[in-house]
DNA sequence: GTTTTCATGTAACCCGTTACATGATTCA
DNA sequence: TGAATCATGTAACGGGTTACATGAAAAC
């Protein structure tokens, strides 16, 4: 039924890659650890989990039944449902992570990708950072030409808004440049820290 | 049928306040003059115009019939439809402009408000700017506490993401401070420029 | 023993997009 | 005359939210 793609799926896969969790806890982490982002609601989270299970990205596990495992073994037993990432789910996450095309949810997509950098190889990190940078530069170019075409017939406020907008984007590009530089430096020195793929037990 | 609120309605009212227009041109201006923003599609624009007419915010005017006004007077004559802002529409726009509550579409709503500053009184401008600032400061506070609670169990990348996010918000606050300062200076000097309410023919 | 928090879900809605369809006007 | 662009619209979908409903466990 539900098609589901969107950044919620992405964030869920990423969080579950770290460790299995049940829905309620997942939602909390979506708003704290991944805190910069929007607060997702249960109304979207639980249906999303369902469809991810249907697709085979996630598996349900019977949550730790609290104390009385012999009391009501098959009644309306709807205890915590712990979700675990399957091997296919891991592949799917990898795939989403390394996507750098323009259909990448622009800003929020980058935020999620960056938040999961700790679990990524440097190759992927470089691609994500450079992809983001080039898309921001495209955006800058568009803004500049649009501004050049319309500068005369805009009032001071609109002009100031556009100036500030462009400056923000330029700042982010500089930030990305620093990050890319430090990633590259890390590679050249190949320091002992940050192994390329920690706990990769799928291959 | 359609309920419609959202920032599209807002932007449309604002653009039509400057001068009447037909849908096609409106859409172009939504992506250039108001250029910083997202590109709205016809699929949302035309239905929006319809419901705005139904509510009485807009009035349809028969567009300038090109050349042959005697050729086919009542056939499938579907020429340009020029939309004009009614007095009620103007009130509605005023109302939306000066709303500073937290239910204000956060970022995009501010962008639209700012883009229409040229048509606003300094009072409204001050309220919008200060409202935006206080909401950003709330956001900053939340980010700081969230960071304080989780700092230890976050990896370097997540930390860097949050640091950069907070810095961006702080920069915008400083920008707002400058704008507010210059608005205040303008008032104290009450210079001849920027009359408080240009062409206010509704009251 | 009652309130809070944990935990899971559903139905209705919202605001927008994509893809499609139609036709008039302008320009090469 | 045929292609581009102007101009208006509709149907189906998309990815979320809000509000609601339910119930168990923990805290007071």
Please, could you describe this protein's structure?
- Chains A, B: It holds the Pfam family PadR.
- Chains A, B: This is Transcriptional regulator, PadR family.
- Chains A, B: It comes from Streptomyces pini.
- The structure is a homodimer of 203-residue chains.
- Chain A is mostly helical and 203 residues long.
- The first copy, chain A, has two domains: 80 residues, Orthogonal Bundle (Arc Repressor Mutant, subunit A); 69 residues.
- A three-stranded antiparallel β-sheet of chain A has the order 1-3-2.
- The structure holds a DNA duplex (28 and 28 nucleotides).
Question: Helix and strand layout, with pairings?
Answer:
The structure is a homodimer of 203-residue chains.
Chain A: H1 6-18, E1 21-22, H2 23-31, H3 42-55, E2 58-62, E3 81-85, H4 87-97, H5 106-115, H6 122-150, H7 156-189
Antiparallel strand pairs in A: 1-3, 2-3
Helix pairs in contact in A: 1-4, 5-6, 6-7
The structure holds a DNA duplex (28 and 28 nucleotides).
Region (Disordered) (chains A, B): 184-203
Coiled coil (chains A, B): 126-167
InterPro entries (chains A, B): Metal_resp_DNA-bind_regulator, Tscrpt_reg_PadR_N, WH-like_DNA-bd_sf, WH_DNA-bd_sf
